Amino acid sequence: MKHVVRTYRIALAVTLASLGALAHAKPIDAQLDCKSTAHDFVAPLQQDGLLETKPMRVEPNSVNAFKPVKGATLTAYGFKVYVVVAYQKDDPIFKLGKGEPIADSAYGVVVWGGDKEVEQQVHAAGSDADVHHVAPFITAIFCKQ
């Protein structure tokens, strides 16, 4: 019984700690309406000090992956954002990959959440974003123009 109570307390502490982080999170749902450009999506997040200015990775298709800065929590449709992904042609914010660029402008996020749940929330909000399964409980929300 002691072990069960201890496990419950640990689980409760972890849950409360994660809720505290989400309570101070910056929601970016409105920007995922697929009516913006990659620059208009990424630049304000960088200017507000919420997103790294240097991409952590550049894919061959020129998609740049930017991490939130340490201590910043971004959410999209209630899901915690792991990384912001974007590319815009001829924009110095973004680095060019070695292959063919994905589009003139594309942007989105990768969130911690199952693809079905994320897709429900995105469509319920009226967004035109595409939802893609990345890995178990990791999902991409993406706008391409």
UniProtKB/TrEMBL annotation:
Keywords for the protein's UniProt record, in alphabetical order: Signal
Presence of the UniProt keyword Signal in the record: yes
Region forming the signal peptide: 1-25
Record protein name field: Lipoprotein
Taxonomic source organism: Caballeronia novacaledonica
